[in-house]
Amino acid sequence: SGDRESYVRPLRLFIVVNVIFFFLGPHLQVFKNNTGSYFVGPFGGYAKSTVKRQLSKTQLSSEIYIERLNTEIRSRAGSLVFVAIPLFAAFLKLGWRQRHYVEHLVFSLHFTTAFLVLILLTGLLMLLHPRAILLMPIVIIPFLFLSLRRTYMSRTWVTILMTLPVIAAFLISY
Length: 174
Fold this sequence. Notes:
Structural class: mainly alpha
Number of strands: 0
Helix content: over 70%
Shape: globular
Largest sheet: none
């Protein structure tokens, strides 16, 4: 009826960002390190032992196996996000039980969209300087804190305490 919407609907924004991500993502440096990142961190030992087991079963060289694994990871990454968003919302529900699950789902959708935009911007910056990836946590942690504070209207200290578990939940979800 001629009225302007005051915001972009979360699902529409998510779809637009995903389309941009689909076309730009493969050309950005942020996607060049594939399985190497899985071998470090808390699950690194498990990942290494799984790859060793698979190598002994398949009799492939490690280079061929890793390339096939990278291809498989890239092909499934797009559908993973549709599982991760509701999972992340479920983690949020654990922290803020008084809210409805749908509210957490909307927050999860917005945050994931912002994260995808950040990945794209980081990828573009990495074309100029490879260490631009170090900016991601510097940007995403305060953004998450401010988003949680504004969305859930918790006290500052509660939001500070909840930010780290929420970051962990987001990383586990993805």
